[in-house]
């Protein structure tokens, strides 16, 4: 069984390593920089492919775009819809202590014909796939409810659907009704607060508020919620009443770019292997931690992922993460 990812707003991710803390107005002597093909769905695809699983990446890009060449060099299977301008470049400034500052370009607008071509490619490859992952921001001018339309279009294929997005597209998805609810939603604490209509500080300070917000997602039709908590690991809640917390192993953080995407990849890979809810959470947290220990937007190989070092506990109270973002 394969995984299909859609990255509507892909990017070339350029990582610039600073010698010390960022100082506005100063001159910094950078360490060697790196450029990787990126965007949330692309990062998921790269991590899935690195594990040897079958994945198809759907994205808008011209055949001669640098991101297409880079993904082809990695051996990824692509389904592209051509656009008339280059894929955007995102910049990440990393400091020695792991602090990252991101500067993201808006991306190329997608006209109706391009959106239709992307939707058709997703539906075509979803037939027979285990998962379709709709990931990332939407380009300028894209209808905010487009993810909801895609969920409805993919549902008849039988593939399960994961969504990882934020802000207005996330709010529009959950407002579209139960028929547009994905099987898996992967918010972080900031995005969960957006959905709950509260502040991230309140969600972080009050675990019961976080659980109440997760419960609302289930009421709206979301089967599973993978709440990522950065250095504190993650929670997994299912509509069947299962709830698990997981703490990551101790690592030296080098870059958090793409860590959440690798968490989603770890979850999907464990599901392909028939893993239980606890197994899927363990794999998600292990992959996220492995990603954060690597430079730039590099994705881990299975050999770099330490699943046994992740502590998974049933329930929430007592041994749960502190919910710091």
TrEMBL record:
Residues 33-302 form the Carbohydrate kinase PfkB domain. One of its GO terms (molecular function) is ATP binding. It holds the Pfam family PfkB. Keywords: ATP-binding, Kinase, Nucleotide-binding, Transferase. InterPro entries: Carboh/pur_kinase_PfkB_CS, PfkB_dom, Ribo/fructo_kinase, Ribokinase-like, Tagatose/fructose_Pkinase. SUPFAM superfamilies: Ribokinase-like. Residues 1-14 have a biased composition (Polar residues). Residues 1-41 are annotated as: Disordered. It comes from the Bacteria. GO terms for cellular component: cytosol. Belongs to the carbohydrate kinase PfkB family. This is 1-phosphofructokinase. It comes from Klenkia brasiliensis.
